[in-house]
Amino acid sequence: MPFTTTLPSPAPIETVQASHKRAIVPTQVNLLKLAKAANGFCTKKQARETLQNAGFVATATVLERLLNTAICIETAQRNRRHDSILKRLGHVPKIEQTTARGRNPILLPIGTPQARLDAVRCKAVATAARTMLRHGAAGGHSMGVNFAVEASKVDYVVTMKQNRDTYAGAYKGWAANEDHHLITVPKDWRRRVERKGLANLTGMMTLDAHPLMPDGDVLVYAATWVRQGRGYDVQVDHGYIAVLGGEHFHADSAQTAIKGVRRKAKLACAPVRTGVSPYKLSVDAFVKRYIGRNVSVSVSDAAASGSCDFGIRSWCASVGLDYDLGQATMAQVLEGFLMRPQEEVRRAVVYAVRRHRVESMTSVG
Predict the structure, then answer these.
(1) What is the pLDDT of residue 84?
(2) N or C: which end of the chain has fewer CB within 10 A?
(3) How many other CB atoms are found less than 10 A from the CB of residue 353?
């Protein structure tokens, strides 16, 4: 085995200095300079070589810092124009994108045609329910709509729940009521009900209406409707609706509905012995005319003026009057009329005033 006494030559001074320099941890300023000079990195290998060529350590932590610095520089350069406009104007004006011919692009709606049609149907039903029925408890509310294939499935259900996340401060943890409405109507509710003007009849929401044989000029429907109950409760009724011109009448039987709407239309056309008809007054003017009358308005007055029992119950529950008491003062009725003005209430008030006048004349005579 050959033996040599030749000693290894010492490493160059530049290599020794470079090996010492690789142990240096770069500062943030060093990383900014490297990232800006490189104008971004495509791979981690490129970033590692940049660190090593500059004489810095290339650990995983330092490498991650360098890549993040490069991303920050790229983002700042990309948003420089945006930030300049925002600083000067306080907002960035919207730029309308146009096609080559100068026309706005046509944006197709999201979803399938069937899904969009179902959304329109649900919105129409929910909007009608919010217009007529009480909703919006302190804890929140929801409106769900289902479509029924069979008429027997048509329904309106209100479920009350509670949550303890509504209140804060001293009342944190207290229970807050929620009202959740589930409405089940036919899929063609808009065509069967809404387009015929039957959706809102005296504050009652028609859920379904099946046309029957008309009685002369009276249109008759076998219908299901919902009316307001106490609080957020509702009452679903099944019966018949008769329509004559602008008048309507709800009843348990078709013949009762037909007779009721004919009588209601006849009473609506009865002459009024006053300078200005009370039916032509505004709501405030009507209240001002009758607020001082010491007269009670009864359920029988409303029925005698042509209102159906379902409508009377619905209106009383909507304005907070007790139907079972049978009557209310003029002030209470007019206060409810301000809350929910309906033509049937006008007729009941006028009828009560006439009845009181006749009774007074009879007692005097």
Answers:
(1) 79
(2) N
(3) 18
pTM: 0.59
Q: How far apart are CA 215 and CA 249, in angstroms?
A: 14
Residues 6+ apart with CB under 8 A from 45: none
**289 vs 142, 349, 353, CA distance in Å?**
41, 11, 11
What pLDDT score does 19 carry?
Answer: 46
Amino acid 18: pLDDT: 46
**Residue 360 Cα distances to 274, 278, 356, angstroms:** 18, 21, 6
Q: Which pLDDT does position 119 carry in this prediction?
A: 92
